[in-house]
Write a structure and sequence with these properties.
The protein has 159 residues and is mainly beta. It has no helices and 12 strands. It has a 5-stranded antiparallel beta sheet, with no helix packed on it. A 4-stranded antiparallel beta sheet has the order 3-10-11-12, with no helix packed on it. Strands 6-5-8 form a 3-stranded antiparallel beta sheet, with no helix packed on it. It has a domain of 109 residues: Jelly Rolls.
Length: 159
């Protein structure tokens, strides 16, 4: 059976949410319960980079604070006032603001919604094979292998 052709255009808010809230192993996956990702790039068959419309409920976080070895990332805030946490400390963001994270810098980052209102943002990242992710605050590491993330403890023992 063949797949239907990708749409020409859609209303981003109508894109279906991912069925799984996180690829992280427990105990980290449950920390993403207040995050909802709507993959946009996948709907159009994009393979070189991903685009997500992401929603953070009050108290939600985008990810564990992390840094990519090979993948660049970019976020653009559409709604709400998240706090960006990096190695430089917290930075308040508001609609229209954006931030970029160059691969290989080691500057770990994540967004947190410490407000009572929903945060909505676009996240864009490439899909460079062989990427490795470090998490300075948690006992976890990740590698991008054959199109999927593989998580281990920092000593490389499996979860």
């Amino acid at each position: 059976m063949s797949r239907p052709p990708p749409p020409v255009a859609i209303l981003a808010a109508d894109a279906p949410a991912k069925s799984r809230r996180s690829n992280y192993p427990e105990p980290f996956a449950s920390l993403m319960a207040k995050r909802e990702k709507h993959p946009l790039g996948d709907l159009f068959g994009l393979t070189n980079f991903g685009v997500n419309l992401t929603r953070l409920a009050p108290g939600g976080v985008s990810a564990l604070r992390h840094a990519h070895a090979k993948q660049d990332e970019f976020v653009y805030v559409l709604q709400g006032r998240p706090t960006l946490h990096t190695d430089d400390g917290p930075t308040a963001l508001s609609p229209g603001m954006c931030a970029g994270f160059k691969a290989g810098t080691g500057n770990a980052h994540c967004l947190a919604n410490d407000t009572g209102e929903e945060v909505v943002y676009l996240e864009i990242g490439d899909r460079t094979s062989g990427d490795e992710v470090t998490y300075p605050d948690d006992d976890v590491r990740a590698e991008y292998v054959d199109g999927r993330w593989v998580f281990t403890h920092k000593d490389r023992t499996p979860y």
